[in-house]
Design goal:
By secondary structure, the protein is α+β, with helices and mostly antiparallel strands. Helix content is about 35%, strand content about 15%. β1 and β2 form a beta hairpin. α3 packs antiparallel against α6.
Length: about 230
């Protein structure tokens, strides 16, 4: 995965101090070939098939186009659009993993059948009595990466998707160039990606009961069940 396409830089160096914002020859200086752009024409991003950020372009006239709304809002807009494009219904929970099959050899008789029936009834009873069902949820952490000594900070959600960008207001007041901002966002994004670890699923109540029920079915259908003579 390519994180940035131009030369990288060392954050130990002094961050760009900006200067007059570049004025392009044309009013709309953002490329329109693909990608996802915000409504104000400030930001456009490109990502690979997995939704990993590959390119960022910011208008050379970004300061003039802000019109009182922070640049962070434009990045939030394109990140939401990107994540919805790749997971329109959110990141789906995987099905509960199958429990390992029982190694116990069951003696196939009426007592065993009655025991299985009792166990199944108990699972169903506990499921029906739950008044506040705890849903399955992803367990993980948001991570951040920075550039220019925290002047630009990119946050990834628990799934590693870009969630937001925060800019140091005092540094933004120096009017850094669009190129500096582009490099910084991609640099911070790459740093955050290096920290991210995939989340795990904490099964909810219904999924746990489903898992227990499937294990019981596996026991009943186990080829190791012994028949009575």
């Amino acid at each position: 995965m390519m994180i940035w396409e131009e030369d990288t830089f060392d954050d130990v160096l002094k961050a760009p101090t900006g200067g007059p914002v570049e004025q392009p020859d044309e009013e709309d200086d953002l490329p329109l070939d693909g990608g996802i752009g915000d409504e104000r024409g400030l930001v456009r991003i490109w990502a690979d098939e997995q939704g990993h950020l590959e390119r960022v372009r910011i208008s050379k006239n970004w300061a003039r186009k802000l019109n009182g709304t922070p640049l962070e809002v434009s990045f939030l807009e394109v990140f939401v659009a990107l994540n919805n494009q790749h997971a329109p219904n959110g990141v789906q929970m995987p099905p509960p993993p199958e429990l390992p099959p029982s190694t116990k050899k069951w003696r196939f008789d009426w007592d065993t059948l009655a025991g299985w029936q009792t166990e199944g009834d108990e699972i169903a009873r506990r499921a029906e009595q739950i008044s506040d069902i705890r849903p399955s949820q992803w367990v993980g952490e948001e991570v951040t990466g920075d550039a220019y000594n925290n002047r630009i900070v990119v946050t990834l959600d628990v799934h590693g998707r870009p969630a937001r960008v925060d800019f140091d207001p005092s540094w933004m007041a120096t009017l850094p160039t669009a190129k500096d901002l582009q490099h910084g966002v991609l640099r911070a994004y790459g740093m955050a990606c290096e920290k991210h670890r995939p989340p795990v699923v904490d099964l909810g109540d219904l999924e746990l009961f489903e898992q227990q029920g499937m294990q019981l079915v596996q026991q009943i259908l186990s080829p190791d069940t012994e028949e009575t003579n």
